[in-house]
Amino acid sequence: MNTPLFDALVSRARILPPLSVAIVDAGERTVLEGAALLVREKIATPVLIGNPERIRAIAGEVGLSDAISIVPAHSVEESAREGVRMVAEGRVQALMKGHLHSDTFLHPVLEGLRDRKRLSHVFLAEISSYDRLLFITDAAMNITPDLEAKAEILQNAIDMAHALGNPEPKVAILSAIETVNPRIVSTIDAACLAKMADRRQITGAVVDGPLAFDNAISREAARTKDLRSPVSGSADILLVPDLVSGNILAKDLEYLAGATLAGLILGARVPIILTSRSDPPRSRFLSACLATLLYHAGATSVP
């Protein structure tokens, strides 16, 4: 798949020193194919945590060297704890989810690696019909964030955009409509967040909302509705009302619109690469490239 916007980030990551990455519960073919791609492209030096026999059996099939570093673990819980321990001891620079559930992976992260008050997830999407990379947050971590949480989630995403080279991203706070309706809480939150940005309680971005998805993405849709917004048609960041709507949006874009996705957890001591167990090696590779760029930008907790 042609991904020129992601390819530009990959080119930047390739000239940086490879990142040492602990892959938690690595004994699955797709996970190890992603690890082999990271080694081949010199983006990262993986440390594989899990069942050594299973990892070695698959590693040979996907082209990973016998010299690859493997750390034994007898359960997914032990794998997750060992990954966090390696970060805490300075033995690796990033953590990647392998073939385990997100809650199992994140539990020790929350206990041991939190750097900011709020950890949050960002999907970065490249869609052939859109002229820029699209940040979608939070679609994997915070389930039903309130206004305070949304402000922290948004600041994390803005800071990530800065670290990747966008000095003033445009943010659309999404809801079902573009007017404030007291019966739709997400419209009230959106209006408050936009005003918080005006008052510099949220900094570094142009923020508007509430906006429906069509108004955020399409200038034509905004004109049809006689909506004047500095964000319409050029949104870089979409802040979604809750995890369910964000997850559905990101996966709709991936499976129905052919989007390529990468994903990271922000706010920890190191970049946390959180991908779906069904994600292809390419998504894992791109997520590691993002982690490399953030780490070397000094943005371990972004920033």
CATH architecture of the largest domain: 3-Layer(aba) Sandwich
Q: What's the CATH C level of the largest domain?
A: Alpha Beta
Radius of gyration based on Cα positions:
19 Å
- How many H/I helices? 11
What share of residues is helical? 40-55%
Described by strand count, sense and barrel closure, the largest sheet is: 11 strands, mixed
**Average of pLDDT:** 92
Q: How many domains comprise the coordinates? A: 2
Q: What is the string of SSEs from the N terminus onward?
A: HEHEHEHEHEEHEHEHHEHEEH
- Strands of the widest sheet, in order across it, are 3-2-1-4-11-10-5-6-9-7-8
Which parts are unreliable, with pLDDT below 50 for 5 consecutive residues or more? Answer: none
The counted number of beta strands is: 11
CATH topology of the largest domain: Rossmann fold
Distance between the termini: 31 Å
Strand content: 15-25%
Class of secondary structure makeup? alpha/beta
